[in-house]
Amino acid sequence: MTLPDLKVLRQLMRTCAQEELLSRFADVGRHVKRDGSIVTDADHAMQNRVQQELARHWPEFQFLGEEMSGHMKQEVLTASGRNGLWILDPLDGTSNFAAGVPFFSVSLALLIDGRPEIGLVYDPIRDECFVAQRGRGSWLNGLSLGTQAPVHLPLARTIAVVDFKRLDRALAAKLGAAPPYGSQRNFGSSALDWCWLADGRFHVYLHGGQKLWDYAAGILILTEAGGQAVTLDGEEVFTSGLDSRSVVATRDPELFQIWKAWVAANR
Known about the structure:
The protein is of the alpha+beta class. The protein has two domains: 6-144, Fructose-1,6-Bisphosphatase, Chain A, domain 1 (2-Layer Sandwich); 155-265, D-Maltodextrin-Binding Protein, domain 2, CATH 3.40.190. Helix content is 35%, strand content 27%. It has eight helices and 14 strands.
């Protein structure tokens, strides 16, 4: 099976995002989905555009997008078998996008045999494209993310990104009352969280629940940069299914053991 050319894929996604997302930024119709989350005209326009472009360039691969119905998603996953399958989040950070906050992205992964082989996350505001290929590394705008030295920071001096919304109350309360890290953020785009962690822009990560399209590209970008991640239960994060997955992650291997142990002890 011939994999897509990463340069072609990167330019395709850059063009789609700039034309479909940036043209609608902060001036877009929005709706509320059944689960209470926001969806905008840009989500649908971007998904339709990317699906068409991927089918034109690589018709051999199937496609799953976040804005498909749950029934359609399950059908595609079941039918894909061992064939290649694109996983797309057309607009990760929709709430930010709709409110005019310049922190959102498009996330695309190619699964082969049920595992991410290629991951791409593009930030059109900063024109930053994070790309990874299994076994070959990860890059930001063509520069390797795997060359940075470990930070060797104690947990108490780290910057953390924590999504409190999806954590159980006991753990969230402990983090709020006596945080073990130096400071905390929550940016609102899971796909970019993975990439910024891979690039060393913060140090520890905790999220209570992400879907396949939230993490499929990002986890490959992080692990190919040398990072590590598990669920709150200590399981592998990636699973080619539709269930929600929690995340405990760092880029630094030594820090990972410390952070994972603290979280496990305080659940």
